[in-house]
Design goal:
This protein is of the alpha/beta class. It is built from 13 helices and 15 strands.
Length: 423
């Protein structure tokens, strides 16, 4: 079997399914387990730190591990860096068969820090029977020194090992998500996959095809050749409902703009053109005049876009802002349900975007965020909006996972187009 520790909502599992195999995932979060179940993935709901590793002895070909990153992530307090000496000690002890986790856990500032040492407990138990054949691990870049410690142990056990930082955008993911990777194998030389994309397209040469340009958000979301999206706007927004259409306060900002006379709403019964699904035919539809959807629909119906859209990663002053013609920055979601928003500005060549003020910021939907992680548009995310965004932000992009896993599965060929990003 392929054993997937900290399996999450199925980034690794979806990649394996495209490659024609399956894994068994160990996962604690109830909503991630429900997402996996709806996606048809095998799961044991358990605490990875408490589950007995010896149960799998003699049955594991490959091991995957993506320990929770919250203790180490730039989006959190990064107490994992404070706890790093304890994590290194836990790895050293577990590699020699000593379990000192209880004592070290008591000393940690963040109890999640020590989860990064858990794969070594499984590896020690499996190594006694010459398993696994291969290993892939992934975490935020600050965990790279820990992966190098793992690598030193694994080389002593007969593995070929590679560690380093990979950018998901270099492998066709519409997101510049950098991650620390460990690849290890008993049967082949461990080496990173060859990048397929680059920030600037490269021409073909005598040595092979050139790399394509990074995939943009507009391409991934099916917005066509331009960077002019029609962001999805949903009603609702309660704790169990759909994504909020606007961030806090933006409804008021829209009303204020209208009251100041800078934006004039259309009559609520007016008709705006709209494209029907699956055809290029334009048909009229009734719209609600005071929504951002009204503005976006009017813009979409014209041949000359007024607004260009960018994705803002959070509401902080130093937030990453990327135009839709670029890949997204790293998607992460904190304690709030969703802080990633589409922000409009006048398109190139448009005079201040035309009449009226710019549309207000619109929150990204779970469907859009999942697609920017290279999940299918119809991936069955479960839970309320906060639970869905938490799963997406912590997931491994399946397309990156496939590039890492294919060499371990006897260089199993796969078509990146199998990861259908657009709806």
């Amino acid at each position: 079997m392929v054993l997937d520790l900290f399996a999450g909502p199925g980034g690794w599992s979806h990649a394996l399914s495209v490659l024609g195999t399956r894994d068994i995932g160990l996962e604690w979060d109830a909503w991630a387990c429900q997402t996996r179940a709806r996606a048809g993935q095998l799961t044991i709901r358990t605490d990875v730190a408490a589950y007995p590793a010896w149960i799998f002895s003699g049955r594991v070909r490959g091991l995957i591990a993506s320990p929770p990153c919250q203790a180490w992530s730039m989006a959190g307090k990064r107490l994992g860096l404070v706890d790093q000496p304890y994590v290194h000690q836990a790895v050293a002890d577990l590699a020699s068969g000593r379990d000192t986790r209880e004592r070290l856990l008591a000393a940690c500032a963040d109890p999640r820090s020590l989860l990064a040492a858990e794969p070594m407990r499984y590896l020690h138990a499996l190594n006694t029977v010459g398993e696994p054949e291969w290993l892939v691990m992934e975490e935020v870049p600050d965990v790279l020194p820990l992966w190098r410690q793992y690598a030193a142990v694994l080389r002593g056990w007969g593995f070929s090992v590679w560690t380093g930082i990979l950018n998901a955008a270099d492998f066709g993911v519409p997101q510049t998500r950098r991650r620390a990777i460990l690849l290890a194998s008993r049967v082949r030389t461990a080496q990173p996959p060859v990048p397929t994309h680059a920030q600037l397209a490269e021409p073909d040469s005598l040595f092979g095809p050139g790399r394509r340009r990074w995939v943009s958000m507009a391409q991934a979301l099916g917005w066509g050749a331009t960077d002019r999206p029609v962001p999805t706007v949903c009603a609702g927004g309660g704790p169990g409902g759909g994504p909020e259409p606007f961030p806090s306060g933006s409804r008021k900002a829209l009303v204020d703009a209208r009251d100041r006379g800078t934006w004039t709403p259309r009559d609520a019964d007016s008709l705006l053109p709209s494209r029907t699904a699956g055809s290029g035919r334009i048909v009229p539809r009734a719209v609600r005049a005071t929504s951002a959807e009204d503005i976006a629909a009017a813009d979409s119906a014209t041949g000359e876009p007024r607004w260009s859209w960018s994705l803002r990663s959070n509401n902080q002053t130093n937030a990453t802002v990327r135009r839709a013609s670029e890949p997204a920055g790293t998607l992460f979601f904190g304690h709030r349900a969703n802080e990633c928003t589409w922000v409009a500005e006048p398109s190139d060549g448009a005079e201040d975007g035309g009449p009226g003020t710019a549309p207000p910021p619109i929150r990204i939907t779970a469907r859009e965020a999942g697609m920017l992680q290279s999940f299918p548009a119809d991936y069955p995310w479960q839970g309320n909006k906060g639970q869905q965004f938490s799963q997406i932000g912590n997931a491994v992009p399946p397309l990156l996972a496939a590039h890492l896993l294919a060499p371990q599965l006897d260089d199993r060929p796969f078509n990146p187009d199998d990861f259908t990003l657009a709806a």
